[in-house]
Every structure is written in C-alpha cells, then in structure tokens.
Design goal:
elongated
Length: 136
C-alpha cells in the first residue's frame, strides 16, 4: 500500500524529463538579451575574410614604406652569431668572476679558522696561567 501511495504522489508532482528541459530552455532564453545567439556564433566562427582584409588594409595605411624590410634586417642582425673574440672575452670574464668568488670564500674560511684557533689557544693559555698562579 505504501508503494502505491508513493507512486501516485510522485507521478502527480513530477514533470517528465522532456518538459523539465523545455522549461529550463524557456527560462534561460527569457534572460538573454536579443541577438545573443548571433553574437556567440559570430565570435565562435571568428572574423570573416572581409574583416581580415579590412584590418590588413587599415594596418598597411598606418605603416611607413619599407617597414617590413627594416624589421627583417633588424631581426637578421640580432640573430647573428657572436664573434669568437666576444665569446672568448665572455668566457674569460666568467672565469675571473668565479675565481674571485672562490678566493674570497676560501680566505673567509681561513680567517674564521684562525680566529677559532686563536680563541682556543687563549683559553689554553688562560688555563695554564691559572694553574701556574694557583700552583703548589
């Protein structure tokens, strides 16, 4: 008996799936501005060939003659390989900087070790003097 009551309640209050989708589409389309679908489709397909042609013409009118050649010349000049002398100079400078860094840190460690050794010897001397003064 519970099953039949449940079945009758759900059948009366629930809409079929097709009707629910139609209601959802109708509600969504009522919220969209006019021409929305057309704008979405135009954006998805991209500019037309005519729009590209107009953009190229507009851009060409704004460039000075010979612009493309100047850009290509500058790009080729920037892409040239550096000379052997410049590579050698860069390598020598890098080696000098690395050697300077190694020497700096090595000297720093030596200075720290000297300070530590001197501190130890001072403690030993102080201890020896204390023993000597308090002697027999």
């Amino acid at each position: 008996m519970l099953v039949s009551i449940f079945g009758s309640i759900t059948n009366q209050t629930m809409k079929p799936e097709k009707q629910a989708w139609e209601d959802l589409r109708a509600h969504a389309s009522s919220r969209l501005s006019a021409g929305f679908a057309d704008r979405v489709l135009r954006t998805a397909h991209g500019p037309t060939p005519e729009a590209w042609r107009l953009l190229r013409e507009s851009g060409a009118r704004r460039l000075r003659p010979g612009f493309a050649e100047r850009v290509l010349r500058a790009a080729r000049a920037a892409a040239e390989m550096p000379s052997f002398a410049s590579q050698l100079a860069l390598s020598a400078a890098t080696a000098a900087v690395c050697l300077g860094a190694v020497l700096f840190f090595h000297q720093r460690r030596i200075d720290q070790a000297d300070e530590q050794n001197l501190a130890e010897w001072r403690r030993i001397v102080a201890f020896a003097q204390e023993i000597d003064t308090s002697g027999p």
